[in-house]
Each structure stands twice: as C-alpha cells, then as structure tokens.
Write a structure and sequence with these properties.
Layout: H1 3-19, E1 30-35, E2 42-47, E3 55-57, E4 64-66
Antiparallel strand pairs: 1-2, 3-4
Length: 68
C-alpha cells in the first residue's frame, strides 16, 4: 500500500468509528515538554486548551518561569 492509500484507509476507518459511536474524540489539556531556563532540567507542564504560555515551577531548582 502506498502512503496515500494508507491515509485514505485510516480516514475511512475513523469516519466509520465516529458514525457508529464506538469512538469518542475528546479535546483536553496539552502536555508541554519544556526545559528550565536556570538549571536546564526537563519539565512536563499541562496547559489548558488554547493556551501556549503557561506559568510553571521547575521541579529541580524551584525557579518560577513561563513556557514558550
């Protein structure tokens, strides 16, 4: 199968699943992977739908920052 054929098959399966109510599509919070600007530690922050800049506190050093 070509990539286009696989894409069309996946879209068809999604449409059928939604029509039969076996699959519920939900939009929830976004998880942002960010690094601390002070110590460089990786942090995982949840952001509400539509938000891109979320305040957080670093888990390693405790510095208060905002995601980009």
């Amino acid at each position: 199968m070509s990539k286009q054929a696989m894409r069309e098959e996946a879209e068809r399966l999604m449409r059928e699943a939604i029509e039969h109510k076996t699959l519920a599509v939900k939009q929830g919070e976004t998880r942002i992977e960010t690094t601390c600007g002070k110590c460089g530690a990786p942090n995982r922050v949840k952001a509400p739908k539509g938000e891109t800049r979320v305040p957080f506190v670093c888990k390693e050093c405790g510095a208060k920052q905002t995601t980009l």
